[in-house]
Amino acid sequence: MREFLLGLRLLLGAGRGNRVRFLLMAAGGSLGVCCLALVLTIPAILDAHDGRAAARALRTSAARTTSAPLVLERSDPHGSKAFTRIFVAPGTGKDTVAEAPPGLPRLPAPGEVFVSPRVHDLLRAESALKGLLPGTEKGLIGGAGLTDPDELYAYVGTTRAELAHKGRALTGFDLGYAPTPAVDPSTLTILRFALATLVLLPLGVFLSVCARLSAASRTRRLAALRLLGLSAKGTQRVNAAETVVAALFGALLGLGEYWVLNQVMARTGLPDLKWYPADGALSASTIAICLLGCPALAWFVGRASARTAAANPLAARRTAVPRPPSKWGGLLLVTGLGIVSGYCVTGLTAHPASSDGPSALLVPAGVLLTGAGLVLTLPLLTYALARGLADRTRSLTLNLAMRRNEVEPGSTMRVVTGLVLLVYAASLAQGILIEENQVTRPDSPAQDYSIALSGLTDRQQHDLASVPGVRAHALTMDSWTDPRYSGSAVQSRATALVATCAQLTELVRHSEGCVDGRVLRLTDPDTAADPGVRAGATFPYRFQQSGRQKTLSITLPSAAIAYRAYDPSAVGGAAVLVPPSALPADARPASAQYVLTSDSQPDTVRRVLDGIGAVAPTADVNPIGVNIDGLQQIAVIETLLALGMVMGLAIGIAAFLVSVTDRAVERRAHITALSLIGARARTLRAVQCAQVVLPLGIGLALALVAGKLAESSYLVTGGGAVFWDGAGLAPLAVVAVGAVAVAALGTLPLIGRRVNPELIRRD
Known about the structure:
With 763 residues, the chain is an alpha+beta fold. It has helices spanning 2-13, 16-56, 117-125, 185-211, 215-227, 232-268, 284-305, 307-311, 313-317, 328-346, 359-392, 396-407, 409-440, 458-465, 501-507, 602-615, 628-666, 668-676, 681-718, 729-747, 758-761, and strands spanning 58-61, 70-78, 81-89, 112-115, 136-140, 152-157, 168-173, 446-452, 470-478, 495-498, 510-512, 520-523, 538-545, 548-555, 560-564, 576-578, 588-589, 592-599, 621-623. The longest helix has 41 residues, at 16-56. The model has no long low-confidence stretch (mean pLDDT 79).
């Protein structure tokens, strides 16, 4: 207790500079705690989303009674979001469900509609949506019945006759699990791991940096206390007390910062991720981790930083040359790289490793060991590089810079580690996004959208063809079959594709033999052909023209186009190509689909779906092969990873700025001495720049290599088609070069113009 009180007295009575350093430690710690609280709260936000989805989920039974309420659930894409409608027909007996769904005072009666706030706003902007919600709006769904404030959800009251053949008996609500979770549980585990790599590793480094501000000055002061008779353990406790108080004060400040941030972000939201303020409220476990974990980390860092002064105070007072860095960090790096490289090698064989069995633990362990090894190996690499260059160079600037790095390699680690870890973690984030794209959507360069032609006007057809991202459009129409046919043989059907040769080229992977203006048979060797669909067979196609129903008979010619469709495709299986000129100008086929195609990148798909929703909000859109829920999951994952990247970037930059500034303040005496013996300010700036840029460049190069190996090991064991992310290397290289440039510029203003000789005598 005496050492703790002594630490507090030194904190308050050691001058203005010490109090400023304490405030900087607390401010830096508050930023770290705010980021930590945000990372720890993200799973709670997702759990709250899934909990409300589970509470409103319908419990139904196929065994209907005459008096049981009937329900029918319909979920259609509105742009890139799902629009869910629950049709409810009231029951007439005792088995009527008494409780209302969450967020509603009661079930809607026939002709009544309850909508979410977002749907309420859309009904004003898009009047065509009213066709999907027959009835009169009676109120809004409360927050307890919505997964997020922007969800598209509605309850529609209807009659039992409307649901007689399609509805199911409603027995209650709350399935106990979310039918469609915000993020799949297996993906959530990977996401937590990625956020830990993106945020928690740099955060630990940053908090350690904040706990070791003015390390050299504090070491000399602690050495003085040790020489005055304080015990070794007491000296360590004095230093730890000061860092613990700063960490505790910073933790309290950081929790307050998070509370404000949660209130603001919950109201503004993030792209594709919205939540209610209560979802992001601080839990008891989060508060305990922040208030206990951060001071505990500061305690251990403080004791470790005071170990040298306590063990050998004379060496600390006389600034003896420290021992070379430990090589144990290199062992961690080699072990981690060995694991991830081994999995990368399996990707070159015919039987790549999977994520089952030991791989489920080895791959994350390899990634974490590599990241930790990067941090702990930087001092050793800096020491070896500095010593080698200083022995060989004849440049005064480089020699001064490398000799200082040779003496203090640990200070370089504190400066560059945050940026190095950011580049390393960014590679892993890229791998997760690639893997999710492969799992949740088909592996095809093209994406088709099929829309029932009966729900579109001529104007909407024209506007849909001009939606940004759409590269081609066409019609598919099915041949007419006689419902009165009673023969034993099955009537054959032939799907006609109404398109030009240019449109066909965009819709399929490959085509050969197309001639504009001619009716041609289509043959796809990858599709099993109906024996009845052959050259010479005639098929009728019905359409409306000028209010009359007409029939167009098309005979399949012998001339054919060989084509290969994408998998999946809206035009796969088409039997005949019909030029648009073969149909009357005002003809509207009776059974037809309007087909659009675009590139398959997720952002393009979302943009096209949003464009379709803006042009035809009530149209029934079928994005071929795409799961809208999966697309929304990708959007949520991208948002969370982007949030992690932003936090990691903020922590990395903050650690760099704090470390460089503290380094410059600590070296004022050295800079003054060099200035007094004739060193120019330009030379000193070059020295400061070289001290940071060279180790940072080595660390970033190592992070790029290690990050790509870690990413590839994850992709190989993920089982997808993409093992090597060559496209992601360029953005990371640009980020690394930018980090070096910013670091170089950041060191230039740290050499002041004034020279104060008193700094040489000052302790």
